[in-house]
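Today's session is about reading a structure prediction critically. Students often jump straight to the picture, but the first step is always the sequence itself: look for stretches that repeat, for charged clusters, for runs of hydrophobic residues. Only then move on to the predicted structure, which in these notes is written as discrete structure tokens rather than atom positions. Here is the chain we will use throughout the hour.
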Amino acid sequence: MPHKIAGNSNDHGSTRLVVGANGGIGLALVKAQLARPDVSKVIATHRMTADIEELNQLGEQHSGKLQLHQLDVTNEASLIAFGRFLSLQAAGIDLAIHTAGMLHDEDMAPEKSLAQCTSTNLMRLFELNSIGPLMVARALLPTQKRQHRFTFAALSAMVGSITDNRLGGWYGYRASKTALNQFIKTMAIEYRVKYPRAAIVAIHPGTTDTGLSRPFQKNVGDGKLYTPAQTAARLLDVLEVVNEKQSGQFLNWNGAIIPW
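Below is the predicted structure for this chain, in token form.
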């Protein structure tokens, strides 16, 4: 049966982690969890160069409940320091959601053809979308206690499904999310004995009105574009009740399984 995250082992409320919390879905997840009385602490990570003005404002509004931590998921020293920081969280992390990733920036757009693929851009996408979440999990999982009930979720994308690929294009983003899905599945298999109450999952958030999707929203059907707040609420609805039997799955925002 699904279980609901009911707080840490000290019954002081649940401790949550959001990686990539300074904008879009990550920021909405921070806001949604800060508003919950059963959540005692939200740890929110951000890059050194990120705009964290809104996170700072939230910290002032929720004194002591929000803890900011600088993290570069591509930097080994930053990840080691993050692992040490997490080891100081005596009750462990009840729900960790990795939201950081990229589709495009000012120097790079999704490829429409093979001719547009470059090794430099492909490596950037894999570094951020695939390897980054894996390294965060490598920092987090050893800090958890064996019998602790917790969930590690990484935001994937429907376009990462090989079965669902009917349009082609977006080589790097598709493949990097497919690789992320494989990493999630492999971790779930490795840790199912060490952490028998853990759920390690990939989840598709749905098309959300953020900077990531904005250049491509003209192709989104009516009623299929969601606000960050809507997406955060739906993700939490699923992740609050996911259980160890679902570990290793690729889930849609409504809890349905997406084919690999």
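Discussion point for the tutorial: Residues 6-11 have pLDDT under 50 and may be disordered.
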